[in-house]
């Protein structure tokens, strides 16, 4: 049950950031903007040169091809879970999570054309 809760929370956080990024991009040329806390979260991605929408689209492809690795990314990157927490949530070993994390990062780096974190 906890696995589903963490997975749902991480996926929801990702979707909230993606939706906010889309709205922000849509009103990019609308003069003064009111900054909300989600802008700070998006700024963290932007500081690392990441486009949240492009990341989301790449993660959707990763989910289709490698679902567990995509879950690891959601839980670590958007959920803020540590390797042991992800392992416990998914019912796999820490070593498996580390391998999945490494694979997913390389896979995403290849799709996003950068050095992503």
UniProtKB/TrEMBL annotation:
Keyword terms, alphabetized: Plasmid, Sigma factor, Transcription, Transcription regulation
- Enumerate the InterPro entries for this protein: HTH_Sigma70_ECF-like (IPR053812), RNA_pol_sigma-70-like (IPR039425), RNA_pol_sigma-70_dom (IPR014284), RNA_pol_sigma70_ECF-like (IPR011517), RNA_pol_sigma_r3/r4-like (IPR013324), WH-like_DNA-bd_sf (IPR036388)
Source organism superkingdom = Bacteria
The name this protein goes by in its record: RNA polymerase sigma factor SigL
Its taxonomic path starts at: Bacteria, Pseudomonadati, Planctomycetota, Planctomycetia, Isosphaerales
Q: Which residue ranges does the record assign to the RNA polymerase sigma-70 ECF-like HTH domain? A: 4-110
Pfam families in alphabetical order: Sigma70_ECF
Q: Mind listing the GO molecular function terms for this protein?
A: sigma factor activity
Membrane spanning segments where? none
Q: Which GO terms describe its biological process?
A: DNA-templated transcription initiation
């Amino acid at each position: 049950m906890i696995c589903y809760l963490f997975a749902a929370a991480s996926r929801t956080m990702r979707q909230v950031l993606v939706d906010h990024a889309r709205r922000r991009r849509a009103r990019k040329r609308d003069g003064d903007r009111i900054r909300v806390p989600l802008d700070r979260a998006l700024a963290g991605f932007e500081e690392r040169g990441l486009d949240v929408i492009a990341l989301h689209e790449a993660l959707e492809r990763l989910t289709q091809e490698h679902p567990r690795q995509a879950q690891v990314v959601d839980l670590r990157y958007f959920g803020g879970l540590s390797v042991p927490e992800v392992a416990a949530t998914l019912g796999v070993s820490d070593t498996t999570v580390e391998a999945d994390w490494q694979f997913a990062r390389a896979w995403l780096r290849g799709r996003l054309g950068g050095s992503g974190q």
